[in-house]
Write a structure and sequence with these properties.
Layout: H1 6-27, E1 33-43, E2 46-55, H2 58-62, H3 67-79, E3 85-91, H4 99-111, H5 116-129, E4 134-141, E5 149-156, H6 162-168, E6 169-177, E7 182-190, H7 234-285, H8 287-309, H9 315-338, H10 342-347
Parallel strand pairs: 2-3
Antiparallel strand pairs: 1-2, 4-5, 4-7, 6-7
Helix pairs in contact: 4-5
Length: about 350
């Protein structure tokens, strides 16, 4: 026998499962079909395929004395290529949070003549009130006329694509056949309690199973390892607060005394410069006189030069100068006697 390709084997298996799903959805539509789950299990002595059917009304799937479910299992075993199928039924706890159930109800409402906006808004409201994190409903087809159109009803938080959408979004589809044509209904629900990748929970070290936090040692903190923080009782805390208040009062008193001393020193220092201002004003007036010696410096230099050039007079020269001075003094006296002063002329 030729070896079967693994890819072809998986494709054929998934096709058979999809056909089984469509068959059971059609047969249990009135019972509220909510999904189908396939699982390979070991049944005592052989391997079987466990098929779990989720329904809103389990009694309508089982039937009286198991008549309906036995018939469905016989048809699955004979009409489909499944390895020893075992059919089971589970009840849906909250039908409003099941995307396939809500899609079937929406299609049923459109077939019964509901206006598409009323049906869409009511379905979204029911899903959100049930506790879903978000809901998206898409209705596409000939809604109000001969042209195709698409209407979307969105509420809450929704992921449209990516791995997050594949793992956290539940999608259900159904079809409504009305007078104008076929209308497709798609319902996507993000269930409550879904933790998205960007949502982070911060827990304490004790809840995480870790010990108390120890701060890393820093430079200059040697010898402080033995410092331990302890919780104080109410009495100890009151005494500590009182001591802190006393320290604050003492600090305020010290600061006030220092400020008073500084103020007195400032007033004394201000009074002393006020008295010394007139004495300081005189040098300002004398500044031009101080500038004159700078101009007289050349004359002084000439005088020093002449003095240096003149030699000391001898004894003969000194005697001649004394005689000349003696002769000049009688001449000046005679001139003063000959010329009367203005006062004498006025008296005469």
């Amino acid at each position: 026998m030729a070896k079967v390709n693994q890819i072809r084997h998986f494709v054929d298996r998934n096709v058979e499962r999809q056909l089984v799903r469509e068959y059971l959805m059609k047969e249990t539509e009135r019972a509220g079909f909510g999904g189908l789950h396939f699982e390979r299990a070991f049944d005592n002595t052989s391997i079987c395929t466990k098929v779990t059917l989720q329904a809103e009304r389990v009694g309508m799937v089982i039937g009286r004395r198991g008549k309906i479910i036995n018939e469905l299992q016989r048809r699955i075993r004979t009409d489909f290529n499944l390895e020893n199928p075992k059919l089971q039924v589970e009840e849906i706890e909250n039908p409003a949070l099941n995307a396939q159930v809500m899609a079937s109800k929406l299609a049923s409402a459109l077939e019964r003549g509901w206006y598409f906006r009323r049906a869409g808004h009511s379905s979204v409201l029911n899903v959100i009130e049930a506790g879903a994190k978000g809901c998206l409903i898409i209705i596409a087809g000939k809604l109000t006329g001969s042209r195709h159109r698409t209407e979307k009803f969105l509420k809450g938080h929704i992921k449209f694509c990516g791995e997050t959408a594949l793992t956290h979004m539940e999608v259900g589809q159904s079809t409504a056949v009305v007078k104008l044509g076929t209308i497709g209904c798609t319902v996507a629900i993000m269930k409550p309690g879904t933790k998205l990748p960007h949502e982070v929970d911060i827990i304490s070290r004790i809840d995480a199973g870790l010990g108390p936090y120890v701060a890393p040692a820093m430079a200059g903190t040697e010898g402080t390892e033995d410092i331990i923080e302890e919780s104080l009782s109410e009495e100890e805390a009151a005494t500590e607060l009182e001591s802190l208040e006393k320290l604050q009062e003492d600090q305020k008193a010290v600061t006030e005394e220092s400020s008073d001393d500084d103020a007195s020193e400032e007033t004394e220092s201000e009074a002393e410069p006020a008295e010394a201002e007139p004495a300081e004003a005189e040098p300002a007036e004398a500044e031009p006189a101080e500038a004159e010696p700078a101009e007289a410096e050349p004359a002084d230099e000439e005088a020093t030069e002449t003095e240096s050039t003149d030699a000391e007079p001898s004894e003969e020269e000194a005697a001649e100068e004394a005689e000349e001075v003696a002769e000049e003094e009688p001449a000046e006296a005679e001139s003063t006697d000959a010329e009367p002063s203005e006062e004498e002329e006025a008296v005469e």
